[in-house]
Design a protein that fits this description.
The protein is α/β, with parallel strands linked by helices and about 280 residues long. The protein has a single domain, classed as Alpha-Beta Barrel (TIM Barrel), CATH 3.20.20. The protein contains ten helices and twelve strands.
């Protein structure tokens, strides 16, 4: 049985005119519940949130969770230049190291925007001292899919390890069922069935965001998205916490206690095959 890792994408897309923001409190409560279960999460943080809320950065580090990078302000790679990416990433790494003495080794591209058109970022990550990425959706997508990429963890030919989003093929559609809106909308029984069907050397991981748990957040139209998409992202949040911990506590599946970087440093992925892009 595959061991399921937990990851959190620390984002906040709430407009400034809505004064109250719950992402910090939700993050602390969620990470505390994971720590009580002995689970070390990998937290991919937006740079602008880290700079705005350094005490939350301290909380994550002080409670033993891994801090990783999720871009400065959630800009897809296709909309960034190499120089912008490098300067923003260097600044984030320096800030985290100065703040809590932690070396940032992991990266997740916004909306899985590492595709065949943005593989330039792989060499940037290597040059910037990263160890791994978790940025590829290995399936077709109306946004940023990379269907030719391997479905299981692999090593880019410069040594960077990639953890692709876990997917399940349902007819002609491939679903990244273990995170975000998919985890919220799919019945837990179906999620469990998909997990049981995974074969090979997959290392599945859950990916959530603070807003997935924030059922009290008022509705707002997310910039760059339609009202329909914004409504879909807003609905069906109230049950997320129960579903997550029912999955974790069920005993039916193995839960990985270590963060991504801990797993790598302890040799779990030493034998990965290379992927030449």
């Amino acid at each position: 049985m595959h061991e399921i890792s937990f990851t959190l994408d620390l984002e906040d897309h709430q407009p400034k005119e809505i004064k109250e923001s719950n992402y910090s409190a939700i993050t602390k409560e969620l990470l505390s519940s994971l720590k009580d279960r002995g689970i070390c999460a990998t937290v991919f943080i937006l740079g602008r949130l880290a700079y705005a809320d350094p005490e939350l950065v301290d909380y994550i580090a002080d409670n033993g969770h891994e801090i990783a990078y999720h871009s400065y302000q959630h800009t897809p790679l296709i909309n960034q230049t190499v120089s912008e990416f490098v300067s923003e990433t260097e600044e984030f790494k320096e800030f985290i190291h100065a703040r809590c003495g932690m070396e940032v080794k992991g990266y997740r591209a916004p909306v899985f925007s590492l595709t065949s058109k943005s593989t330039w970022v792989v060499d940037c990550l290597k040059n910037l001292g990263f160890c791994y990425s978790s940025s590829v959706l290995p399936a077709g997508s109306p946004l940023y899919g990379f269907p030719s990429a391997p479905k299981e963890p692999f090593r880019w030919n410069n040594g960077i390890i990639e953890f692709p989003a876990p997917i399940h093929k349902l007819g002609p559609v491939s679903i990244p069922f273990l995170g975000g809106i998919y985890f919220r909308y799919l019945p837990l029984s179906l999620i469990k069935r998909f997990l049981r069907s995974m074969k090979g050397d997959h290392s599945p991981w859950i990916y959530c965001h603070p807003h997935d748990f924030d059922y009290k957040q008022p509705y707002f139209k997310i910039p760059g998205n339609s009202h329909i998409v914004s409504l879909l992202l807003w609905f069906n949040r109230k049950d997320t916490n129960r579903k997550l911990f029912e999955l974790i506590d069920s005993g039916e599946f193995k839960i990985e206690k270590r963060s991504f970087i801990q797993q790598i440093e302890e040799g779990k992925f030493d034998s990965l095959s290379d992927y030449v892009y």
